[in-house]
Design brief:
By secondary structure, this protein is α/β, with parallel strands linked by helices. It has 2 domains: 1-143 and 154-310, Rossmann fold, CATH 3.40.50.12780; 411-508, ANL, C-terminal domain (GMP Synthetase, Chain A, domain 3), CATH 3.30.300. The protein has a 9-stranded mixed β-sheet with strand order 2-1-10-9-11-12-13-14-15, sandwiched between helices. Helix 1 (7-17) crosses helix 3 (68-80), helix 2 packs across helix 3 and helix 9 (237-243) packs across helix 12. The longest helix is centred in the first third of the chain and has 17 residues, at 35-51. It is globular, with a radius of gyration of 23 Å.
């Protein structure tokens, strides 16, 4: 299929090529959307936005659960020439209020559930902008689009304004153009060899860049289809894949851990197991590092190939991926660059030789155009020759595979020695009782910083903190091992599923 320069062009092209083919299935409401219906919805929604006074370049916010009309609103906004602002439903009222104000959103679509949960926020928003309540089972759009005149949209025009979670300070608004989001989706399609016969399962929320670009736009670019339940369910995950005949799915490591921890209790029927081993091409894990032990256990337990990848909000999701067979998969690595350039630099900006750790840099059509209303952050993040500072520490092996070793801001410096939290995490994951783990730094009078760690235990497992700490010391030695291990019910995470290490010290000490 010809390469498209805007989302509108892509929707029109797919609607012309496959009007009756299914694009979206929402099992909760038992709805299906064809490519022809997607185009009709996008045009009707464009008319709706124009009637509401929305012009090209305006911002439209959504605080919505996953669903049929969430997809129609998201894609319809971009089709109309406006930019969609997906709001993180678990971010808290103060963050949501900041996003609404900072983004200059003029229209807010909200689920009834969030209208009730954030009633004060919604009431405040209603005094500044138009607020529409969205029922996923029905949503009224103009019946006629005969008088619709769409503005010209170019590849550089804004399509998505999505806010990073951030571990400190206010979230930053990542501006993604039509070029950026289409490039990010194409990277997914190329990395995983998706085509029009593939059907994905998306259990991640649509305010998550992974769900929005990889799943929704990945299916659209490939001409395939997508199954979109309202949220992740441990008990329904595998049955839904078999029932809806999915060929691939996208997860984060936290969900991988939950599926493993509940595998015996939930059970998988012989029919489902047969479908998984014969019909599912792969699952993909992104948004946070996946431990090799968990990766191998998942493949052995479920007989499904799991591909580790890496993506960022600032890069419209996918930047690195392990290849599908017969390509080589390396456990502990998110793979090689796909669709963009990647390199490792030292503190002086010089490219590091293979095997030497430094900062991961990315350049490509998928990289953000700018941070919204934040010129200083844009200049700090993007070099004059368009390389993005990711803030991730990584090294590249002789075969070109990247290995993420930590975050620049999360690096533990003890007695002048750099210690990667990821190295400690991997050892803790090896303990049979540990479901999740995260090492972090605390201030220390003699060493400058000391190593600590938090863990979440598997269900029905019991072990004390000192036993886990001693286990880590036996593997790492006393210098690198955590001085103290804390057992928690859950680890703090951002919307992408990444553990927020910088919050752990405040929670534990």
């Amino acid at each position: 299929m010809a390469k498209c320069s805007t989302l509108r062009e892509l929707i029109d092209l797919q609607a012309s090529a496959r009007p009756e083919q299914t694009y979206l299935i929402t099992p909760e409401t038992d709805q299906q959307m064809s490519y022809g219906q997607l185009q009709s919805h996008a045009q009707a929604f464009s008319q709706h936005l124009q009637q509401a006074g929305i012009k090209k370049g305006d911002k439209v916010a959504m605080l919505l659960d996953n669903g049929y009309w969430t997809v129609a609103i998201m894609l319809g906004t971009m089709y109309a020439g406006a930019a969609i602002v997906p709001m993180n439903a678990v971010a808290g009222a103060s963050v949501l209020d900041y996003v609404l104000d900072h983004s200059d959103s003029q229209l807010l679509f909200v689920s009834p559930h969030y209208q009730e949960k954030y009633s004060e926020l919604v009431d405040t928003a209603a005094s500044k902008m138009t607020v529409s309540i969205v029922d996923q089972s029905s949503f009224e759009l103009p019946e006629s689009t005969d008088n619709l005149v769409l503005p010209e949209v170019s590849t550089e025009d804004g399509a998505v304004l999505i806010y990073t979670s951030g571990t400190t300070g206010r979230p930053k608004g990542v501006q993604l153009s039509h070029k950026n989001v289409l490039a990010g989706a194409q990277n997914t399609v190329d990395a995983h060899q998706l085509n029009d016969t593939d059907r994905g399962l998306c259990v991640l929320p649509l305010y998550h860049i992974n769900a929005e670009i990889v799943s929704v736009l990945g299916a659209l670019v490939s001409g395939g289809s997508l199954v979109l339940p309202p949220k992740f369910s441990v008990s329904n995950f595998w049955p839904l894949i078999a029932e809806k005949e999915c060929t691939w799915f996208s997860l984060v490591p936290t969900i991988v851990a939950y599926l493993l921890d509940h595998a015996e209790r939930e059970g998988i029927t012989p029919e489902i197991k047969d479908y998984l081993s014969n019909k599912v091409k792969f699952g993909r894990s992104a948004s946070a590092p996946l431990s090799p032990e968990m990766h191998k256990e998942f493949e052995e337990r479920f007989a499904v190939l799991l591909i580790e990848t890496m993506g960022l909000t600032e890069t419209a999701a996918q930047i690195l991926s392990n290849p599908l067979p017969p390509g080589k998969i390396k456990y502990g690595s998110p793979g090689v660059a796909v669709g963009n350039e990647a390199k490792i630099i030292d503190e002086h900006g010089n490219e590091c030789p293979r095997g030497v750790s430094g900062e991961l840099m990315i350049r490509g059509d998928n990289v953000l155009s700018a941070y919204y209303k934040n010129e200083a952050a844009t200049k700090e993040a993007i070099t004059s020759d368009n390389w993005l500072h990711t803030g991730d520490l990584a090294m590249q092996d002789e075969e070109g595979y990247f290995f993420i070793t930590g975050r620049l801001k999360e690096l533990i410096i003890k007695g002048g020695e750099n210690i990667s939290p990821r190295e400690i995490d991997e050892v803790l994951f090896n303990h049979s009782a540990v479901l999740e783990a995260a090492a972090f730094a605390v201030d220390h009078r003699e060493y400058g910083q000391e190593v600590m760690a938090c863990v979440v235990l598997k269900q029905d497992m019991s072990v004390d903190c000192e036993t886990i700490r001693a286990f880590a010391e036996a593997e790492l030695g006393k210098f690198k091992a955590p001085q103290q291990v804390y057992i928690m019910d859950e680890l703090p995470k951002g919307p992408s599923g990444k553990v927020q290490r910088l919050k752990l010290a405040d929670l534990c000490l």
